[in-house]
TrEMBL record:
Family: Belongs to the CDP-alcohol phosphatidyltransferase class-I family.
Highest rank taxon of the organism: Bacteria
Signal peptide location: none
Transmembrane segments: 140-162, 183-203, 209-233
Name by which UniProt lists this protein: CDP-alcohol phosphatidyltransferase family protein
Native source organism of the sequence: Cellulomonas wangsupingiae
Amino acid sequence: MSRSYRETLDALASAQKGAARSAPAYSRFVNRRLGRLLAAWAHSVGLTPNQVTGLSALATFVGIALLAALPPSWPLGVAVALLLALGYALDSADGQVARLTGTGSRAGEWLDHVVDATKISALPLALLVGLYRSDAAPESWLLVPLVHAVAGPVYFFGMILTEQMRAATGVRSTARVGGRAPWLRSVLGLPTDYGTLCLSFLLLGGGTLFLVVYSAIVAATVLVAAAAAVTWYRELARLGTSEAASA
């Protein structure tokens, strides 16, 4: 028996895993909810989780291609921001569809992470190409997307690898442990939120204004990635020691 759109939304609300309580505010309060609406639509038209992932990749990589091919402008910035935000919401929707239908798989999770890793690397490089081709920024500013092309993937890979190693040792992610939601941490995480990066392209036609905002996002990513790397390493070192002691 098929569900109505409203029934599907209600089912999604009860079928989802708990949201990371320390996740940045856009991802937690905006993107996940947009993803739920898109997941209900995808389920109503019979799309599989992998097909939703494919739509996410299509929207994201069209936006990235436009960023590399066309000179910066206000219309281009709006188009890129909307495409990236749509791709991000669909990235949330694919997992929600998988949990709703019980069709999640390791292959699907792998595909999702590969798409994420590709876009995180490709986005700053596309921006670099677009700025260079259009001569829209002094050469010194081109170092910013280069730094981002390193810091973004390192942060993402470190986070995913840490989660996998925690799971391998039976440790639950502290971000999902109960207690009062650390809303302040969510707000403070906005500068490193992928959703914030998507919306920053609304300023693409603003020249120096965009570059300053984008540079602030990159600087925050570098600082958070460095701090997180130290924390993750120490945590995993303790887990390794504990395992050795109990062997």
